[in-house]
């Protein structure tokens, strides 16, 4: 690999839609793994719009990301919870549910766990 890699989410290598047209995940790939830009539309809820794809009771993907815009509530299986918004850095271990908050899409760039997220 050279010392420089430039890719654009405007031309993703793969796009994975969520159920019921509630958003999508755009992926770009690097030697270090996939990086995703997820757009979660108002009304998106992991339990309703990704759970049927994942086939697990809660999200079993670890996330490390930056919130570009919008808001999201994350609730861990043990009850710990937080609301994240524009400008926030977040990390979530496997075992959580999440949903958008408000009437604005939540856009997150996530560089951990995207290889198989919402993959059919």
TrEMBL record:
<protein>
    <submittedName>
        <fullName>Cupin domain-containing protein</fullName>
    </submittedName>
</protein>
<feature type="compositionally biased region" description="Basic and acidic residues">
    <location>
        <begin position="8"/>
        <end position="17"/>
    </location>
</feature>
<dbReference type="InterPro" id="IPR014710">
    <property type="entry name" value="RmlC-like_jellyroll"/>
</dbReference>
<dbReference type="InterPro" id="IPR011051">
    <property type="entry name" value="RmlC_Cupin_sf"/>
</dbReference>
<feature type="region of interest" description="Disordered">
    <location>
        <begin position="1"/>
        <end position="21"/>
    </location>
</feature>
């Amino acid at each position: 690999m050279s010392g420089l890699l430039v890719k654009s989410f405007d031309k993703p290598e793969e796009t994975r839609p969520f159920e019921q047209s509630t958003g999508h995940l755009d992926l770009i790939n690097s030697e270090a793994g996939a990086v995703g830009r997820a757009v979660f539309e108002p009304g998106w809820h992991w339990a309703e719009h990704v759970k049927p794809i994942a086939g697990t009771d809660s999200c079993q993907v670890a996330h490390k990301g930056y919130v570009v815009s919008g808001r999201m509530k994350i609730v861990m299986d043990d009850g710990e919870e937080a609301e994240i918004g524009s400008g926030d850095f977040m990390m979530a271990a496997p075992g959580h549910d999440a949903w958008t908050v408000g009437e604005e899409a939540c856009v997150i760039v996530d560089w951990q766990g995207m290889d198989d997220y919402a993959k059919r």
